[in-house]
UniProtKB/TrEMBL annotation:
One of its GO terms (biological process) is methylation. The keyword S-adenosyl-L-methionine applies. This is Set domain-containing protein. GO terms for cellular component: cytoplasm; nucleus. SUPFAM superfamilies: SET domain (SSF82199), TPR-like (SSF48452). Residues 248-529 form the SET domain. InterPro entries: SET-MYND_domain_protein, SET_dom, SET_dom_sf, TPR-like_helical_dom_sf. It holds the Pfam family SET.
Amino acid sequence: MQSSSRNEILNKLYKCNDYAELKTNKARIDYLLTKVIDYDQAKSVLKSNIDNVRQKNGKNLVLAKECKIVADFYLQQVSLGKIDHKYKNLQHALEYYTRAILYMPLFEDVQMFARLYARKCQVHLQLDENESALYSIRMALDILKTYGQNDCVPMSTIMNYTILQVNCLKILSHYTEAIEMIDEMLMKLAKFPELSSEERQIVSTDELMKMKENIQQFISKNNDVKETVTAAAAEQQPNDYFNYRIDHRCLIRQSPVVGRHFIAKYEIPEKTCIYQEKPYSIVIEQDYLHKKCSTCFKELKYKFFPCLYCTEIVFCDRQCFEQLYNLYHHYECGIMSILKSLTSAAVHVFRMVSRISPIVAYQTETSVALEDYSIDDFIQESNQRLVHEKDKTMDEKIRAYKMSSILWHHNTKHSQWSNVHHIVVGVETAIILDLVHNMSLNKSKEFMLNFIDMVVVGIRRIIFNVFGWHEYNEDWSLRGHIANCQCLIGSLVNHSCVPNTNWEFKNGQISLTTNRMIKKGEEITITYGPNKDMPYDRRQERLNHYFFACRCQACLKDALCGYALRCIHCGDDDDNNGPVPFNVPLNNEPVLSGQCLLCFKNIQIFNQTLMNIKNV
Ligand SMILES: [Zn+2]
Ligand SMILES: [Zn+2]
Ligand SMILES: [Zn+2]
Ligand SMILES: [Zn+2]
């Protein structure tokens, strides 16, 4: 559905009284598919839409070549000795080589793809960006080695690039690696004595020996020169992988009233990081897709390795690309923009379902096999904590999916209260899943309705269950919205308008840090947005989206100050009676939450009567 036709459908449904009276998702989906749109027609419209977008977002040799010509021109200006605009020309060259890499269809010309990285390396060297130069030439050689096997890459090209890499290594004082590379080249030369004279001209054994001597002399002259460890090597610590980590002083408890929550088992000092988690699912916003690696979510800085098939996302390197492509990107490759136009929650659901396949996801949510599986079971599994998704067995992946689906089961309001928008977007998401996974969803109407219902509930669950990853300026003003993240364990932490911990994201990883000393037995809380500086009404209005009345210190105080009724169940005298607060829903008509903040018992009185009491 194009966005215009989606708006038409939404308007039609908003005005439709029959539709408004339907109480279940399935009835609403059925109404949409029988009275408003035809499934097959909607599917064929979406299919042609997907084909168009895939084509547009696909690699394009012509565009790549055009960018390369522009880049070559700027680089040429510099080599011709035009000093005036040297810096500017180099910057332009860099920009266009980068663009060319983005558009370049690797499999149509592996050598050109590598050449673009090699040129980029030369530009970086002239700009004195040596780490970036080393990175680029490594990419060039890696590409030739990985994809160039059947391509008869001339020995001279590999030699040329290797010498460029040796130079970068030398500048960055990685001498040992530089000498290793020279030794490798010497061995290759010895192995292929039949090189043509042309190739011999580029590099000879004598020259290589001279280069090696030169570096060795340099080392002995500067005996105290310490080799800088490459950043990449320092970053790699394969043994400390985790999906989440919780401080031993924290405990996850279950209560019939507030559900799962974190408490302090022992006293925890201020400024302690008590929990870290790599989200189960992250959807990066459009503006950040070329700034963050889509696999490890680190800032890309000088790194730039695009998906080899679409122009939509970028990675640190080939390893990050291959990992994500195999996990789930091959399903969404080229159509991210379509999925995103639905809502980022739809992208989350699309990915989560694609990762284990839509049918398995459906079975996981409906079959009895995992019926007993609980949040506690998930927490007890060490593999869910310590094994990377790419190394998980299918069973482990299914249980992680199950965990995400049971996070909100204790609150069925979420499943029932899906608005028109969720229904329409859910139907669209299901059709795209149908197309991508060849499901033939409409073979059985019952299954189709159930499946779409699952997608709709999933979308709703995500909307209320994600953390926003933001970027701030130095004065703490908002710089940008980076991504939405679903954290399986983080979702268990409850809200308070005066939270005792602050949460933040770094490299796609959330962490909680205490903002004061937390006493033994105290609940650990974060804010879902509202804080004590907002007026009571405004706070409750926002928290109403999550279907609970906040019982934090600030809300309790405000509720006792008149923004609430007194509970008839608890307390001996009037002063001890718990408050039953008013909620302020979207239409600004205050209604009673019905639940006492202290004893949690429900009070049923007509709202109008309550309004009168409140106004007295
Ligand atoms: Zn990465
Ligand atoms: Zn792609
Ligand atoms: Zn509160
Ligand atoms: Zn009470």
